[in-house]
């Protein structure tokens, strides 16, 4: 894979602690560090996904004209496809990862939501 930023799909997550976020994404979910400018910013990749981890000191963390301050959390999320959801859930629970819910089944497969250390939601999904 090329290291050209235009070759990735990029998603920005606001995080409370960039180093903690790097450890979470690389240690638990198989991401690789692309750039590390902690404490302000880092980006990590997994396949064609480039996840921008922006801390409070990053330019993305600056207050808006109305005074609102960007922060982590919310319900938008990245969607990671896994081959064996039950095994991933067991592994991540054993590693102390925080889950938002239990596995649910839908028409297309099964999914579960987990949270990174800043409260950003991720979805693990196994197709039918």
How would the blueprint of this fold be written?
Elements: E1 9-14, H1 18-29, E2 32-37, E3 41-46, E4 49-54, E5 78-81, H2 85-94, E6 98-99, E7 104-106, E8 109-115, E9 121-127
Parallel strand pairs: 1-4, 5-9
Antiparallel strand pairs: 2-3, 3-4, 6-8, 7-8, 8-9
Structural class: alpha+beta
Mean pLDDT: 94
Radius of gyration: 15 Å
Task: Please estimate the helix content.
Answer: 10-25%
DSSP helical segment count: 2
DSSP, total strands: 9
How many strands, which pairing sense, and closed or not: the largest β-sheet? 5 strands, mixed
Distance between the termini: 29 Å
User: Which percent range describes the beta-strand content?
Assistant: 35-45%
Note the run of SSEs as H and E: EHEEEEHEEEE
Instruction: Give start-end ranges of low-pLDDT stretches.
Output: none
The geometry reads as globular
């Amino acid at each position: 894979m090329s290291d050209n930023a235009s070759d990735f799909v990029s998603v920005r997550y606001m995080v409370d602690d960039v180093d903690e976020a790097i450890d979470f994404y690389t240690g638990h979910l198989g991401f690789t560090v692309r750039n590390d400018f902690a404490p302000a910013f880092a980006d990590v990749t997994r396949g064609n996904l480039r996840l921008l981890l922006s801390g409070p000191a990053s330019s993305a963390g600056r207050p808006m004209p109305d005074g609102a301050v960007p922060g982590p959390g919310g319900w938008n999320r990245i969607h990671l496809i896994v081959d064996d959801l039950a095994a991933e859930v067991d592994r991540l629970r054993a590693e102390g990862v925080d889950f938002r819910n239990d596995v649910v089944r839908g028409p297309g497969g099964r999914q579960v939501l987990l949270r990174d250390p800043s409260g950003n939601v991720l979805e693990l999904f196994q197709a039918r």
